[in-house]
Amino acid sequence: MYKSMKLNYYKSTYGLLKLRKLLIFTLLSLFTFNSGWGQNQRISIVAKNKTLLSVFENIEKQTGLSIAYNQTKLDVNRIINQDFNDKILSSVITELLENSSFTYRIEGKHIIIVPVQLQQKQQSTQKIQGIITDPSGLPVIGANVVVKGTTNGTITDLEGKFSIEASLGNTLQISYIGYLSKDIRVDGKDNYSIQLIEDSQALDEVVVVGYGTSKKVNVIGSIASVDSKQLENRATSSVVSALTGQMPGVTITQAGGRPGENTGTIRVRGVGSFSSDNDAKKADALILIDGIPGNMTDINPNDIESISILKDASTAAIYGSRAANGVVLVTTKMGKESKVSVSYNGYVGFNRATALPKYVDSWDYARLLNQAEGVTRFTDEEINAMRTGSMPDLWANEKFVDDIFSGNGLQTGHDLSLNGGNDRSQYFASFGYLSQNGIVPGNNYSRYTARVNLTSNLSDKLKLTIRLRGDKAQTKEPGTAGAIDGGYGMMSLISQGLRFPGFRPSVLSDGSWGPGVKNFGTPKAWLASESFQEKPTMRINSNVRLEYTPIEGLKFSAIGAYNFTNAQDKKFRATLPVTINGATSVLGPSYLEEKNTNTDYKSFQATVDYSKTFNKVHNLGILAGYSWEEESARDLEGRRDNFPSNEYPFLTVGSPDNQTNKGGGYDWVIQSFFGRAQYNYAERYLGEVTMRYDGSSRFPSNSRYAFFPSAAIGWRISEENFFKENEKLNFINNLKLKASAGILGNNNIGNYAYQSVYELGNDFNYPLGGTIQQGAALKTYTDPRLKWETTRTIDGGFESVLWNGLLTANISYFYRYTYDILFKPNASASSAFGLQMSEVNTGEASNRGWEFEVGHRNNIGEFSYSINGNFSIIKNKVETLGLGNVEQANGMVGNGSNLFIGYPIDMYYGYQTDGVFLNQQDIDDYFAHTDQSAMGANKANTKPGDIRYKDISGPDGVPDGKVDATYDRVYLGSKIPKYTFGLSLNAAYKGFDLNIFLQGVAGVNGLLNGFSGWALWSEGNIQKWQMKEAFDPENPTRYPKYPRIANLGNATGINTQQSDFWIRNASYLRVKNIQLGYTLPKSILKNTFIQNVRFYVATENPFTFHSYPDGWDPEINADDRFYPVLANYTFGLNLKF
């Protein structure tokens, strides 16, 4: 008979550790736990005069493997006289069995010693046949049958039968979508009957919810989630980019591809709030990383285990005052009970702009400007010199856009992680490095990250979890002259390249810099100058959680967190020597600004969680908790001008004349009490209520606290007996109906919005004690009744799983009404005493919509695939702006957007047009019955090719022969998408995997204006599409895409009124990500220490389909200060040891 010797895989070495020693011990465990199973382990044995049995016992102790052998045949009392020092296990076993009739093989955690003849017999193959059926006895067609550890495989036929060659002792691995995989050991039989069990994975899936986790089938509210595998398939350094389009009801807009600023905006179920000062962040979702507020740029995507987005009140109300715009829960990876696993992900790639504006050659610019003005600004000789280069110091054909966006865009990333532990302690540690070169020369970003997540069971009832994270990042950007910087830094440099025509040379024949168009220098010169901006940042985050479980089902938790951030900003604007009319002139003056900000965040949470099942069907869960958060920041800033040299950008070097220094800071505190009660009967009838009572220092004492409740009910109709017993409905595994309602809050306002502001200065001097003393005066009036923004929500829908996961389908409807919106009235509603108005609770808005989600997955032999799509319809509306019946205000995002009662937030509001004037007769006929004097237009200053505006109404509601702002402006479109959608396609065959993701929006508009939309705006440049599409008096058409090219100056004229002529369809379909990977066969790696090798190539944003003007990405919809959306092309390597 065989004897199996199995020692404990781990011997406990913990005992009763003191808490202060635990962290050190656990860190050391990273490198001492689980040296690994398998034949490549190294062991050391002193075997002088030892029996083979004692040597086997020693091997088991060192490796955690068990050794099996036949006691009647193998002489284990044989004496061994040999030492093994740091030798590989396989070579030790081979030497021990040398000159014997035995050999060995390793299977899992077992070393099996067998006679040589038996091993050879087992290696001979035989034909194995069988049939595979489901639980009801029906054949499973297309099931995979593979000899484990080999590439030998087949699939079942129409009768569920299969035939395959295998050896005695081999393992057949059976798998099919919707069923649990099954291993069958070849034991000598040649025919097998195998029944598969349905896979309830889709029903048992666990998702992260507020302050805990829950089985997905028991979640009543609306939660969208992605896991680490889905993020890996996106191959991007930006978490926000990886989430784009993945979930219905979640709209993510990229802010461009500026290195180090991959934030974008995350909007959950529309825009639930608005602001009078373009503060778009007021409508952003709350982001929590392991339960602590954070930022998506703060985290390495490879550290993420899952992301859940809470979309309705029943899931988000437990976060109360900051949950009105949705909650994003990011959970980082934790260690697992296993041997040490080391993973590496490395990639290299490059970026390019998805779109860049294209400008006309300088000679075309000169010719068109002459035509536009009707005078000769440029002579034929000068125009010819631009074309031929015959006068290089005066005239040129510079391509500033090419100069500005000439960076290589190189990007590299390296991520290393360790994961492992035993039944007492587990760990996850990661180290990451990211380097991004921008497509603007001199623009780069680098980041180092480190994370250690530890879990340790101090006893059977006490558990400690520690999360530590640190990162160091730095952004560097080029700059311009101080005189033209305007506080925008690199964005001003980009603006210069997009604004100014290139008819002046950057470099003169003597090698000196040319003055540029307006004696500001040129982008090429400033890119080569010493101007720069550096922004180093260091963050340290810590999170400690202690859980005590005195009895089964009852858990007490205490969580403390501390985050520290140091952010520096150093901006140096150098001088630049240029040659003007043969003489050197220095553009300046130079200056240096430095700012240092320290931010401290502290929080404490305490919860008690009780869950129990009564009589096997009554499932109860109760959570109660307390939370306290505090954040404070302090900053110090200084500036000096007129540096003697650009080589010494240090404050002490600058002139003390006119130097400035200042400092500031802020503090806020939130205190909260929260709770949740859940009940379900046999996972069939579901109910849940939550509450949160929040208090914030941002509100006055009489309205500091607010209560945010919610309730939800659900019915898993698929669990009813009448449903299960209906054979026609057997294909439905899960069908859940759900509904919820609740109240959420928003405290996204200034830290001191309710406090009056006084201004100090010499304008407020007072005679006191016979002398004049500097005084103060009230500057801002505040409302002492200031209170929370509040959102009432309702939500309903159903979720389904069909054919054991072959198909999933979910539909939800939602309605959100936000009132008491904190909004600053415009000047017409301000105090009659000239005081500025602060924010007051005056606005109301609503959002309603539908969300659809469908998924399909299947296996066809060795080919597996999945298709997942989502689609959302969201409508929002401004219900009121309050205070004096104010009906119009600037929109949140600026760029011509407005707020108008009865219409969407960030709508476009302007005139309707009827093409352009064809000729003078057309102009005469129009002005014979229409007055445009309110717009500064008349028959005398109107020319063919100018825009025709419609008279649509008047005081009596009918056209009155006048075009004016009061009666003739209407809703033109919205900057917020009405429709969003995403589609993912995933496939795998043998070692290959392919992932394609498409994303887009529809029902959204963009506005062309300023330098991006208008030729010769403030004597700016002319784009090629404008020249091509402009009105042509030689071939006039009523509806050209661009009116006549005119010198617009910088004033609003007849052709620059906000109208439907400049509104464009900003809908788009983007191929967001394509990734192709190949994993090496296990057989190649079987004699190595490497478990897995995968190569991949990926691209992000390679193609975008839209009808927006050439050179512009519709997602940006910016004027002249923008960083383009980037397309990324990457080659990567995944290793696992």
- CATH topology term of the domain at 202-335: Ferric Hydroxamate Uptake Protein, Chain A, domain 1
User: Which superfamily, in CATH terms, is the homologous superfamily of the domain at 202-335?
Assistant: TonB-dependent receptor, plug domain
Helix content: 10-25%
Shape: globular
Percent of sequence in beta strands? over 45%
Largest sheet: 22 strands, antiparallel, barrel
Radius of gyration: 35 Å
Defining traits:
19 helices; Immunoglobulin-like; disordered N terminus; 5-stranded mixed β-sheet; about 1150 residues; Ferric Hydroxamate Uptake Protein, Chain A, domain 1; Phage tail protein beta-alpha-beta fold; 22-stranded antiparallel β-barrel; mainly beta
Reconstruct the topology from this structure.
Elements: E1 2-5, H1 19-32, E2 42-51, H2 52-63, E3 66-70, E4 79-88, H3 89-96, E5 102-107, E6 110-115, H4 116-123, E7 125-133, E8 144-147, E9 153-155, E10 161-167, E11 171-175, E12 182-185, E13 191-195, H5 201-204, E14 206-209, E15 212-215, E16 223-227, H6 228-232, H7 239-243, E17 250-253, E18 265-268, E19 286-289, E20 292-293, E21 304-310, H8 313-316, E22 327-332, E23 338-353, H9 362-373, H10 380-388, H11 400-404, E24 410-421, E25 425-437, E26 444-457, E27 462-478, H12 482-485, H13 490-499, H14 523-528, E28 532-551, E29 554-573, E30 576-580, E31 583-587, E32 591-614, E33 618-641, E34 655-681, E35 685-696, E36 705-716, H15 721-724, E37 732-746, E38 757-768, E39 771-781, E40 789-802, E41 807-823, E42 836-837, E43 840-860, E44 863-880, E45 888-890, E46 897-900, E47 907-911, E48 913-916, H16 920-927, E49 947-949, E50 969-974, E51 979-989, E52 992-1002, E53 1005-1007, H17 1010-1013, H18 1024-1029, E54 1063-1065, E55 1068-1079, H19 1082-1085, E56 1092-1106, E57 1126-1136
Parallel strand pairs: 3-6, 7-13, 19-22, 39-42
Antiparallel strand pairs: 1-3, 2-4, 5-6, 7-10, 8-9, 8-11, 11-12, 14-15, 16-21, 17-18, 19-20, 21-22, 23-24, 23-57, 24-25, 25-26, 26-27, 27-28, 28-29, 29-32, 30-31, 32-33, 33-34, 34-35, 35-36, 36-37, 37-40, 38-39, 40-41, 41-43, 43-44, 44-51, 45-46, 46-47, 47-50, 48-49, 51-52, 52-55, 53-54, 55-56, ...
